[in-house]
Amino acid sequence: MPQHSPHETPEGDPFGPDTLPYGVFTPRDAPEHPRIGVRLGASVLDVATAARDHGSAYADLLDQPVLNPLMAAGRPVWEAVRAEIRDRLDQGVLPGAYARSLDAVTLHLPFEVADYVDFYASEHHATNVGRIFRPDGEPLTPNWKHLPIGYHGRAGTVVVSGTDVVRPRGQRKAPSDPAPSFGPSQRLDIEAEVGFVVGTPSAVGTPVPQSAFRDHVFGVCLVNDWSARDIQAWEYVPLGPFLGKSFATSVSAWITPLEALDAARTAPPARTYPLLPYLDDAAAGSEPGGLDLRLEVRVNGEAVSRPPFSSMYWTAAQQLAHMTVNGASLRTGDLFASGTVSGPEPDQLGCLLELTRGKGPWLADGDEVTITAWAPGPGGSRVGLGEVTGRVRPAVA
Amino acid sequence: MPQHSPHETPEGDPFGPDTLPYGVFTPRDAPEHPRIGVRLGASVLDVATAARDHGSAYADLLDQPVLNPLMAAGRPVWEAVRAEIRDRLDQGVLPGAYARSLDAVTLHLPFEVADYVDFYASEHHATNVGRIFRPDGEPLTPNWKHLPIGYHGRAGTVVVSGTDVVRPRGQRKAPSDPAPSFGPSQRLDIEAEVGFVVGTPSAVGTPVPQSAFRDHVFGVCLVNDWSARDIQAWEYVPLGPFLGKSFATSVSAWITPLEALDAARTAPPARTYPLLPYLDDAAAGSEPGGLDLRLEVRVNGEAVSRPPFSSMYWTAAQQLAHMTVNGASLRTGDLFASGTVSGPEPDQLGCLLELTRGKGPWLADGDEVTITAWAPGPGGSRVGLGEVTGRVRPAVA
After folding, report:
1. What sequence ranges are listed for the domain Fumarylacetoacetase-like C-terminal (chains A, B) (predicted)?
2. Which residue of A143, A154, A330 is in closest CB contact with B115?
């Protein structure tokens, strides 16, 4: 039995044969033909061309400018495609002539986003933010531990990692200001999140239970939900965040298949209240819904936080069940993000609002923010989740 | 000079040659080829086939299963296509063999929805709802008269008029309940709204001023923003409405071109506070931003309300300017709705929450809701905005 190309992925490389995330790339020297690639170490494997060359039944799904057709094909096809790619690695067909250096390709937004939903699933984050935004009230609203709170964001401004983010302008009004003023946000922030990408759609009127999570969710990405705190604070009552968020949301270029994270499954925190049946995840025998993902946030190269995704109160399967329990349908390309990942410790907070207790400093023009993550893989290996990075450009004049 | 086909549209018909809204249809006896049609009286004109038969340069834009390609083509093309259709009416080419009875066609969702934003632009509605949802506070939040409050809704559950709506299930908890319960919504409501459909996209980082409204907005539809008040009341603090709205939003099958509403332009209400420059619409010489649309809401055939769109505090041009002032881009197919249209009088309220002062009765299974509207047209004519209708089906077991 051949080894998994050890010469291509050094010991400990988080993009070994147990990871194999999907992206969309073009060679820098031939940008006219975007297609699906798979990451191995510091290379992109041109699995679209390999599939064509070797008569794969999946060539038409892989030779695409977005992942949506592959994602729409459903879990049996996802597993068959992944198995075929691993077989070709075992056989030595891959990487072969199909590897391109990451330095020699451009990575594109890997999927067409249908609806984008952002949750608010970290108890630590929601508590910290509640204390800052509503200092006179209880930090958690009464509903928080009974349902995963979420809202729809702007799908049209989801951009791929590496895209610059223009500082938004907008209205803000501090409580002490006599009237609102207008200008570039003075409190530009990040939110380190994990996103889940829907492959298999569902019909209107048909809730998707937690047990069907794997049938519908294709994979995982990293998300930076850029946030203008001054704009958000003035606008968000009573209908929620809008322009404080809608200028840009960055996602990683790599979508990690759900099955690459099987070894990272972990139990979520104990529940404070009994949950309604559609949200209850304590039933004997069900797969643990938490994921042990270790995030790291860097600003201009310096690590400022290491948020643990295992601390999230609400799991992605609960979010999916909640999002559809009213009969709302899923579409291929739906993205739902966790909300800011913050742990209990001061060096585990996923946004500057919390890291600076609402006082700043905030992001300056030219700052570059990078979020990375890894998860335990099989046999002590690491599974990398890629990175989401972006640089702040000055506001338009 | 021939008359505008008076035999096809009786005197006073709101779908005469000054209206000419666009939709997408299939003949009942030939459902395999959806294409663009234009309404005239009680007929659908097959303008796609007419354009093919007569060698129109616009045949490829009209022979489409959605309006998006035509909408993406921009205002000069929209005006040229409308002029060509009116010319063919004058010449007697239309209706000719191209008319099909409305009874003999199926009407489809006329455009692919990109992002869906719902505003909250009626002062009467926001005040009434504030009194019911937040009885201990000021009815209007401090930001309300400084910016048009809005939020993103679920684009994937926008459905065309005539689609049944399944009663949603979900969590609700009255303040007096010890814990939340789960089941079919007991407070199912409507919201009578007007929607604006974006044709011409805009670039990220480039705000769209009020003066560019006509360049970007293709047309107008009617919207029923179905709302489950019990689900909404329990979930909406702090991030806004989610499952209380996301199960279904109905839109009319007909999109009325903006230029058909030129005679309906009217000044919006006087502003309480000076507005920031990007929202200021009092500048001399600018086109009035309000629209004199007269809505009617019928439940099971009985008129229950006649909301006047002219009473809306925030105009669609202000909403567009606000939505993009942070640099958020527009895509072809973006839909932004006004929020519930309510006037100052008791018979001008656009939802049951207001009509019944929060007490119900609410919608029962089997109830059918229809919203229609018309506007003053040129020379005393009426311009019809079609209708949006839907029937409530029982919750899933």
Report:
1. 117-392
2. A154
**B175 interfaces chain A, CB cutoff of 8 Å:** no
C-alpha span between B215 and B229 (Å, rounded): 37
Cα A217 to Cα A74: distance, rounded to the nearest angstrom: 9
How many whole angstroms from its chain centre is CA B328? 22
Kindly tell me the sign of the dihedral angle through the C-alpha atoms of A195, A196, A197, A202: negative
Residues of chain A with C-beta less than 8 angstroms from the C-beta of B204: 157, 159, 166, 247-248
Above 50 in pLDDT, residue B3?
no
Domains along chain B with CATH numbers: 22-108 (2.30.30.230), 116-393 (3.90.850.10)
The single residue listed with the structure tokens 């796609």 is: B48
- Alpha-carbon distance of B162 to B155, in angstroms, equals 18
Phi and psi angles of residue B101, each rounded to the nearest 5 degrees, phi first: -65, 140
Structure tokens at B39: 């309404």
d(CA A243, CA A149): 19
Q: What is the DSSP string of A51-107?
A: HHHTT-TTHHHHSSSSSHHHHHT-HHHHHHHHHHHHHHHHHT-SSGGGEEEGGGEEE
Closest CA to B257 of B214, B213, B216, B219: B219
CB atoms within 10 A of CB B113: 25
Distances (CA, A) of A9 to A3, A50, A99, A309: 11, 19, 12, 26
Q: Please give the pLDDT value at position A3.
A: 41
CB A254 within 8 A of CB A219: no
DSSP assignment of A345-386: STT--SSHHHHTTT----PPTT-EEEEEEEEE-GGG-EEEEE
Q: Which 332-371 residues of chain A touch chain B by CB within 8 A?
A: 334
Summary mean pLDDT of chain B: 95
pLDDT classification of A282: cutoffs 50, 70, 90: confident
pLDDT digits (tens, 9 = 90+) for A283-319: 745 678 999 999 999 999 999 999 999 999 999 999 9
Look at the alpha carbons of B312, B317, B321, B323 in this order and tell me if their dihedral is positive or negative: positive
B77 touching chain A per CB within 8 A: no
3-state SS, residue B314:
coil
Q: Is B29 exposed, middle or buried (0-12, 13-18, 19+ CB in 10 A)?
A: exposed
Does residue B157 belong to the interface with chain A, where contact is any CB pair within 8 Å? yes
Identify the residue whose tokens are 């349908």.
A329
C-beta atoms of A246 and B168 within 8 A? no
- pLDDT > 90? residue B190: yes
How many angstroms separate the CA atoms of A118 and B99, rounded?
A: 47
Q: What is the rounded distance in angstroms from the CA atom of residue B100 to the CA atom of residue B91? A: 19
pLDDT band at B363 (very low <50, low <70, confident <90, very high): very high
Active site residue A125: yes
What's the full length of chain A, in residues? 397
**Omega prior to A207 cis, within 30 of 0:** no
Interchain CB contacts (distance < 8 Å): A and B? 198
Compute how many other C-beta atoms are within 10 angstroms of the C-beta atom of residue B56: 20
Q: How far apart are CA A160 and CA A178, in angstroms?
A: 39
Question: Does A89 score more than 60 pLDDT?
Answer: yes
What confidence score (pLDDT) does residue B4 get? 44
pLDDT value, residue B42: 96
Q: Which residue of A has its CA nearest to B144?
A: A235
Name the binding residues of B for Ca(2+): 118, 191, 193, 225
- Quickly count: other Cβ atoms within 10 Å of residue B155's Cβ: 24
Is-cis flag, bond preceding A95, omega within 30? yes
**CA dist list (Å): B151 to A73, A337, B115, B285, B384:** 32, 17, 11, 31, 28
